[in-house]
């Protein structure tokens, strides 16, 4: 029997991709397709909800789905640590619901962040440059924010990175003490480079998204993890077997 999925944001770029992937799978079926004009109650009766809508709407959508007893996969951006902290008590202890938040469905991007976390303790100068298409409304990107937070956490015992002259706007926005530089360009889909400066050497960990196809593996991985998930899980890396990589 297939798992019944409601897609919220179904008319959008990600919603159409997810609808196609589910249509091609043997284990899932789309039973409700919602857009900005839909009544959220249309998701009732599904087993899972996938939210790929808009940052301003995502909070209410996820809360509705939890109250309706659905398990939820969130791909929408804008889920800060504070928002996630407010979500946890709504889900924890409930057997009928769980939330997986995946700010970036690309496996390569998740590995880039994990590798940056490893390098974090060996360099004191660390900066992030991210580039996205010109229509992206938020900056820095959620992936850059999460990468900076993870690098900072890995360096907790070492303290903040060296980021001189960061009062100057051109030095980027500090996220968890790390300067992040956001480019919004025609011709680009998504790209992120973390550069580590050491003594007489630099290390760059760069990931480029070349097409939306890069999200397919991560979307299916997260969908298949959802039926047995509990509480709130954040990041594709939590679903990948990174073994001794950390
Ligand atoms: N996790 C990842 O890997 C990943 C990758 C790419 C993008 N994203 C994020 O995913 C989200 C969607 O991106 P996209 O490129 O697919 O956007 P999009 O093409 O603009 O589509 C947005 C979708 O959300 C719907 N929507 C807007 N407001 C809504 C509301 N209040 N209630 C319900 N549905 C609403 C839209 O419906 P209408 O057609 O009625 O307007 C449309 O179906 C964004 O937050 C984006 O940053 C995540």
From TrEMBL:
All copies of domain Dihydrodipicolinate reductase C-terminal, residue ranges: 111-238
The protein's annotated pathway: Amino-acid biosynthesis; L-lysine biosynthesis via DAP pathway; (S)-tetrahydrodipicolinate from L-aspartate: step 4/4
Principal subcellular localization: cytoplasm
GO CC annotation terms, alphabetical: cytosol
Entry-linked NCBIfam families: dapB
Chain ranges of the Dihydrodipicolinate reductase N-terminal domain: 4-105
Binding sites annotated in the UniProt record for (S)-2,3,4,5-tetrahydrodipicolinate: 133, 142-143
Superkingdom of origin organism: Bacteria
Subunit structure: Homotetramer.
Binding site for NADP(+): 37
GO BP terms, alphabetized: diaminopimelate biosynthetic process; lysine biosynthetic process via diaminopimelate
InterPro entries linked: DapB_C, DapB_N, DapB_N_CS, DHDPR_bac, NAD(P)-bd_dom_sf
EC number: 1.17.1.8
Functional summary from the UniProt entry: Catalyzes the conversion of 4-hydroxy-tetrahydrodipicolinate (HTPA) to tetrahydrodipicolinate.
Molecular function GO labels: 4-hydroxy-tetrahydrodipicolinate reductase; NAD binding; NADP binding; oxidoreductase activity, acting on CH or CH2 groups, NAD or NADP as acceptor
Binding site for NAD(+): 9-14, 75-77, 102-105
Identification of the protein by name: 4-hydroxy-tetrahydrodipicolinate reductase
Catalytic machinery residues: 132 (proton donor/acceptor), 136 (proton donor)
Native species: Orlajensenia flava
Subcellular localization: Cytoplasm
Alphabetized PROSITE patterns for the sequence: DAPB
Family designation: Belongs to the DapB family.
PANTHER family linked: 4-HYDROXY-TETRAHYDRODIPICOLINATE REDUCTASE 1, CHLOROPLASTIC-RELATED (PTHR20836:SF0), DIHYDRODIPICOLINATE REDUCTASE (PTHR20836)
